[in-house]
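Section handout 9: paired folding examples.
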Amino acid sequence: MLLNEASELPLARRLREKGGAPLGEVFSFMSSLYFRGKLAYARAFATMRCGAHVIAPGRGLLSLDHPVRRADLLAMATVTVSQDETRFREPLARDAQRLARTLAPGDAVVLLGSIATDKYVQVLTACFGERLLFPPAFVGRGDMSRGGLMLRHAAGGRPLEYAPVSGAVRHGKRPPKLEPLRI
């Protein structure tokens, strides 16, 4: 829908315009609940000094508000998200190292993605070491469940608990389903 040059969706039209659309908004549209949860959670709890960043295939770490265009998304789609893919790994490592140099003592980086695979965990751990944290409540959850969990915590103003990725249990049994939201 977004990449169709004839699409009349407002977001698709913005992607075709010179100014583009914010990466966070585009990824939220494309991945629905999962990225909407990440976006809401990051906006609620990211520090002002470091901000929130998105792993963008072939582009490294970009801010949530970084403008992207249709051509940018098409280029990202050609990059395999894998630590073995140089076009993915090198920009990610470059930007993670840059971010690591800006951290103050005691700062941490919270990964809101899955740690079940090495697709980005190895690169980020090499840059941030023990400062790379994640919510252990993610272990065993699928994308949609993690998204729902982040939405609930953002709406409630309660950050999740964090633990270092290094040495963490990365696979576990599926936790109980989240209770339906009462609206």
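Moving on to protein 2 of 2.
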Amino acid sequence: MHVNERSHIAEQGLKFYTVLYDVERDAVGLAPEQRLEIRRARAKPVADALHTWLVDQRRLVPEGSAIAKALDYNLKRWDALIRYLDDGRLPIDNNWCENQIRPWATGRKNWLFAGSLRAGQRSAAIMSLIQSAKLNGHDPFAYLKDVLTRLPTHRASDIGALLPHRWSPEQ
């Protein structure tokens, strides 16, 4: 909003979020209990001031404007936005999750042209294995190469051992 429209209100709002993220950077690596203490002491007052500011600004802007929509978005989701202030284990945002699904969301329309329903299902299964391998700390190429090499002689009853969360490379 600020970049596209050069909104003075958006610029003011970003200052609040900058402070909240600064607090999070200072709390990185701390135990959840310590992070919660820092959040309560430093982030909660900023969040409270932000909420008051959002409500005040919403009264001033015209209904239906882009800035009104942005303010409404924040206010309607306020409880979810500040949930992290009550639990030191929660992140301030869901960026990690968003980054994990981005490759799949980006290619979603391209995969409509997999050729057939079965081809699309096979592609989805392979992509799930690759992402699961990554999440389990494996090199996806090494994982798939090893699994595909072992698969023809592997016992069907022990197929679960080849899943990414159980897999270990053959010596």
